Amino acid sequence: MKKFLRRVTAIFIVVILVLATLFVFWASDAAPASDVALQALNSDSQTFVTIENGWATFYPANNQQSETGFIFYPGGKVDYRAYAPLMNMIADEGYFVVVMPVPLNLAMFDINVAARIQAEYPEIKNWFVGGHSLGGVAAASYGGSHPDIKGVVLWASNSADDSLKINNMPTLLVYGTQDGLFPLEMVEDARALLPEDTIYVAIDGGNHAQFGSYGLQAGDYTATISPLEQWTQTVDATVEFMQNTLSVSP
Q1: Does residue 135 share a domain with residue 23?
Q2: pTM for this model (two decimals)
Q3: Same domain, yes or no, for 6 and 130?
Q4: Burial class (CB in 10 A: 0-12, 13-18, 19+), 97
């Protein structure tokens, strides 16, 4: 009997190790950042970009002492650098922006990375968090449990629970009408978990993958607008949300 149990235990351990290995390989196969995205990691006359503590940071070149910061969680299995074009554009508007890699390319494995970022930059007085797809779920989880956060920005994403609603956290949800992974019915489902005054912004013709710059994504629909058009509308909605939130924030 003991010999049989040892054999069963050994088989169980082997199965777990195999499954864990397969999961690591699956999660590590991230969608790569495009050449356009990698170019956006270079500083220019409007934005100073650097890698600090392993995070990509974007400083507004003409306003290095910005008091407002935006922490962005990348989408699941997407290279965090794929969001550089949009982060660069937000920094151009006068905000300090951070986007960071996450363990196994899944933000849910390090939700509290935002706390470490906040601690690293104490000069930032106002913090917003946001994310794309699964990264948005992580951002919602962090924002829902940290009342010092000024607001949460969701790009084609939702909260996993009603913590944002319970805490009446200012929330923005931006979605594309051609999104095959976060379709309109999921937008409607999100209303049950998000605050009643959540702002919803539809990008007509936008899809899921064009919230970043990493190419086509399985299951997504074809966008009918260019990436730049979708980025511009997404950034405009995000910046307007932060500006309006701070204007009424105590």
Answers
A1: no
A2: 0.89
A3: no
A4: buried
Judge if 19 and 62 occupy the same domain. no
Q: Give yes or no: residues 168 and 142 share one domain.
A: yes
| Structure confidence at residue 150 (pLDDT) | 98
Chain centroid offset of residue 5 CA: 46
Nearest of 33, 37, 61, 35 to residue 47 by alpha carbon? 61
The amino acid sitting at 166 is: I
Q: What is the pLDDT of residue 217?
A: 93
Q: Given 3-state DSSP classes, what are the helix, strand and coil percentages for the chain, each rounded to the nearest 5?
A: 45, 20, 40
Tens of pLDDT, residue by residue over 91-129, are 999 999 999 999 878 889 899 999 999 999 999 999 999
Do 62 and 181 have their domain in common? yes
Backbone angles phi, psi at 208, to 5 degrees: -80, -50
pLDDT tens-digit map of 36-95: 999 999 998 889 999 988 899 999 987 566 899 999 999 999 999 999 999 999 999 999
The structure tokens listed for 210 are: 């064009």
Residues 208, 149: one domain? yes
Domain ranges, residue 101: 33-248
Q: Residue 104's pLDDT is what?
A: 77
The neighbour count for residue 17, using CB atoms within 10 Å, is 10
CATH number assigned to the domain comprising residue 179: 3.40.50.1820
Tokens of 92: 């151009």
Comparing C-alpha atoms, which of 85, 32, 31 is closest to residue 58? 85
